[in-house]
Amino acid sequence: MKFPLNVLFFCSAVLTADASVLENPALNKVKILSPPEQHAEVQMVRDGTPDFTIVYDAQAESHLKHPAWKSIEPAIAVLRENIRKATGKEVEAVDWRKADAVRTRHLLLVGESPLTRKLGIDARKLPQEGFLVRSFRNGAAIVGNDSSTDRSFNTRGPLYMLGARKGTLWGAYDFLERFFNCRFYYPGPDGSVHPAVAELRLPPLAYTDAPYFQNRGTHYLKIDLSRIRRSIAGLKQEDLEKYYQSQRWSKILPFTSMHSPYPEKWAQSNPDRIESSFFRSGTGHLYYSRISHASNYFDVTSLQFADNLIDSLKRFYATGGKDQQGWAYNNGYYIVFGQCDNELQLPEMRNNPTVRRENLITQENISHGEGAYFSDVYGRFYRYFAERVKKEFPDKKLIIMPYASYTHAPFQKKYYLPDNVEAGVCLGKFPRFIRNPEVLAQYRDQMNRWYEALGNRPVQMLWTYNAGNNCFAQAIATQFLGEIPKALGKTLGNVEIFHEFSMWPRPFPEQGHWHFYYATYAGMRAMWNPDFDVDAALDEHWTLFYGPEAGKHLKEMHRVLKEGFLKYAVPAQNPKALFPPKTLERMEQCLKEAERHLKAGSVERRRYDLMSRALKFELKSQRGQHAYNPPLSTVRRLFGDAEIRIDGKGDEPEWEKCVPVPMLEPNGTGEKPRYPADLRLLWNPNGIYGKIHMPYPPASGNKDMWRNSVVELFFSPGTEKKVYFQIALDPENRACMMKQQLKPFLMARDFQWKCRGFRSASAFNENEWTLEFFLPFSGLGEPSPKAYQSWRFNFVNNKLSEPREVSASSMCLGNNHDINLHGIIKFMGKGD
Amino acid sequence: MKKISLFLALSAAGMLCGQDMNVTAQKYTGWNSGNLIFNRQALIAGPRNTCGVNFCQQKPGGNGETSFYMVLTEPRRQGGFGQHQCRFLRMEVNGIDMQRIMPQERDFEIWKKGRTAGADMTFRFDGTNIILSAYMAADSPMLFLRFRPAETQLEPLRKFRIHLAVQVGGINGILKAEDTAVRTAARELAGKPWKQAKNMLNPEDRWLIFYDRKLDGSGKDKGFGPSFLLLPQDFSNLNRAELILPDDTLASVILDVKADFRELTLGIWQNKAPIPNKDFFRLFEERKKDFTVIHTPEQ
Question: What is the ipTM of this complex?
Answer without folding.
Answer: 0.88
